[in-house]
Amino acid sequence: MQVSGRTTGCGLVNEHFLNKSISLSGWVHRRRDHGGLIFIDLRDRTGLMQLVFNTELSAQVHERAHKLRSEFVIHVVGTVVERSPETINKDLATGKWELLVQDLEILNVSKPLPFSIETTDNIDEELRLKYRYLDLRRPEMHKNFALRHKIIYAMREFLNKETFYEIETPILTKNTPEGAREFLVPSRIHPGSFYALPQSPQLYKQILMCGGMERYFQVARCFRDEDLRADRQPEFTQLDIEMSFIQEQDIQNLIERLLKYVFETVLNKELHIPFKRLSYDEAFSSYGSDKPDLRYGLKINDLTPVFADTELKFLRDVINRGEKIGGIAVSGHAFTHSELNRWVDKAQKLGAKGLLWIDLESPENISSPVSKFLPKDFFARTANVCEGITNGSVIFIVAGEYEAAWEILGKLRQELARELNIIPQDELNFSWITEFPLLEYDKKDKTWNAKHHPFTSPNQGWESQKLATIKARAYDVVLNGIELGGGSIRIHDRAVQEKVFNVLGLSAEEVESKFGFLLEAQELGFPPHGGIALGLDRFIMLLTNSISIREVIAFPKTASGFDSMMECPTPVEDKKLRDYGLQLTPIKKV
Ligand code: ASP
Fold first, then answer.
1. pTM for the model
2. For the chain, how big is the Rg over CA atoms in Å?
């Protein structure tokens, strides 16, 4: 029998093929051997089709079919017939038909699998990753990767129409500061020297602008050697974009149209643009986060003025220290006392010293551990600063240093929304967070670091401002509380770049050795430019409703950065190390 070619996919058989002879190839998904009659569900990436083997058609083929086991790979030729009404399977796209098999070829056999591919329940993830090729056979994985392909394809299509060039940049490169540690690759030809794997193509894409390419994009692999958190990968994919002669709005507008195109063409969903824009300061003061989930309210309010004349010593001390009192009002939910106390415990777990609750049952009736210290007009005062206060609203209060207190309130806000079940699950709420601080202070090292990266342009007038207040021409795009990507308008002027390096504490020698080429380029006609990168793995994870980015990456690493299938990283023989002039010394684990 000739295996090459097949008439259609298993899941694509339909009435057009009725009473026709077709061929199919795939894996034995399930088998029911009733002796004279054998049923096989044949699976390929398009779905399932029922095969029937009976002795009347060909005794020889029937004999061979007895040997079939789960996951054998086969090729069959047969006639599509209608199933009898009582055997129609409504849950299956091909459930009205079956294939009466005339010929069967076993293309490969399979031992029993180490786990069932019908469900992931109770299957250890390490095992799934060790046998990733089996895991990938599951229909959900096919759905995820089909969607991933379509999304990336649509992005390419859109950017092509917008006259972008897709350009590859090197993987063996030099450190690009994006705030993480880089992976190093020793050079054999230059012993003692190392390449770094790119944390992103940042400097190359800027240099492409200096090279007059004007509009660049790349589906770029990025590498960051960070201590892995639950849902991080040491290598991940970004849609990386850079444009010349633009302002912030141009990039933001392009990304909005790109996302709209992807949603409409791939997901058949309407997307309303433009997205809401919030400055970093607005986002932080209202939501305690630079990536607020805007699908629900629960805004943080500054209650410091409400307590200006308070008799409560701990709040007076906070005010005297110049710190702040922030509160979230929850309306329309009756909390019991024990629930309220549970929220106190939760806030403490989130890092708060304490959480004060005040139940505004009515203007006359306020219950709280501190109720007797509250002024008579507390209800009215609070209603003045918090939106939507009604009888029965409960206020949760955290006091302390502004940033720390607001960060805790931001996390509390998310937990409250989750537990009170007020997050609209079907909503896609995109927003832009703009005007990020240029710098961030590292209290431990007592240094100022770039919040985005050192090539981000400061806002005009920055030189006369205090370091903590300088804003950057940087923006993030956020979806439902998750940062999808970020970018900035870059520095194209050598003098500005040098000043920023200086603020970051880089010596002239360091600057010259690390970024000499950039400074030189900035003196040789570097156009104004800016860009962005979108994290594709997380985006696709959200759109496929997957629980982890590992479900949308074909060969992800485990939480400890290990490839369980290839079993790497691996030790290297001394002989090989010698080629690189390398010698290992034991590392003390701290
Ligand atoms: N290189 C930046 C990043 O990876 C994105 C950008 O600024 O375009 O986050």
1. 0.93
2. 30
